[in-house]
Amino acid sequence: MSFRKLLITGGLGFIGSNFIRYLLSRYTDISVTNFDALTYAGNPDNLQDFESDSRYHFVHADLTDAIRVDREVSKGYDAIVHFAAESHVDRSIADPGRFVQTNVVGTHHLLEAARKSNIQRIIHISTDEVYGSLEAHDPAFTELTPLAPNSPYSASKASSDLLARAAYHTYGLPVIITRCSNNYGPFQYPEKLIPTIITKAMAGQPIPVYGDGLNVRDWLHVGDHCAAVDLVLHKGAPGEVYNIGGENERTNLEVVKSILQTLGKPEGLITFVNDRLGHDRRYAINASKIKSELGWRPELAFDEGIKQTVDWYVRHESWWKAIVARQERINGKESS
């Protein structure tokens, strides 16, 4: 199936902007519209080099605005890939209402608008966090693992997943859900774990590590994730869920030490801090379904992916320093 006119939500964020880059680099005969609210994590610089590309269009609008969503979706898109979401767990603990509005209400608006249009495919991007937490020897999450979210963020994503599922089963809307493990790579907002480690290590600053640092995550390079989403878009079956995992389980402490070693920085920068509220112990993805049914495989090993990511942040210091400075100004105004 061919999709030439695509609507991407949240395309100025980390994964969304990488996916748009992937599409525009891979296909010549497509039109991509980026629907983004330009929240703190949406950065126009992420796609600055595509602003003059006639295949790329930007719409500044918020999914919580049902009228704007309906107006945009009615413009005859072949497919929608829905990345837009509030995604930082710490922020969800501080302000869960914002996550409900964007992730739940926003997704509802998008699905309702799609029901009125001839959309051939909708990919709803979710997370492995909706499955809850695993113990050390538990088997990895499969698509049949019951949803058991433990944070306001993951609860809002699980809620949006259920809305997407209901839209397929009730109205026949051609929705596919993907659930990925932790992503890393270029253009990731500095507040996330790996960019935080890199940028603080580069500056010689203490690196905060929650609890004992032994929480485990399955790491997936954003490039492998983009390839998987593209494959699901073109070959996935509506109504299905596909787990996308990197098969790279690491403790947070192992990730920190790996980055410090890559940068040639001392482990003495590691500073243990009080654990996050409700911190899930372990995530792990079983991606056998997407492998066997669609033929996807992650290509980038974690060690090589980390080296490439560190190198990107070193070479793009002006990119992340501008974000850090802007956030510090915002925090200063909020505290004054």
From TrEMBL:
The keyword Membrane does not apply. Residues 7-309 form the NAD(P)-binding domain. Pfam families: GDP_Man_Dehyd. GO terms for biological process: nucleotide-sugar metabolic process. Keywords: Lyase, NAD. One of its GO terms (molecular function) is dTDP-glucose 4,6-dehydratase activity. It catalyses: dTDP-alpha-D-glucose = dTDP-4-dehydro-6-deoxy-alpha-D-glucose + H2O. Its EC number is 4.2.1.46. Gene3D superfamilies: NAD(P)-binding Rossmann-like Domain, UDP-galactose 4-epimerase, domain 1. Its cofactor is NAD(+). NCBIfam families: dTDP_gluc_dehyt. PANTHER family: DTDP-D-GLUCOSE 4,6-DEHYDRATASE-RELATED (PTHR43000). Belongs to the NAD(P)-dependent epimerase/dehydratase family. dTDP-glucose dehydratase subfamily. This is dTDP-glucose 4,6-dehydratase. It comes from Paenibacillus roseus. The lineage of its organism: Bacteria, Bacillati, Bacillota, Bacilli, Bacillales.
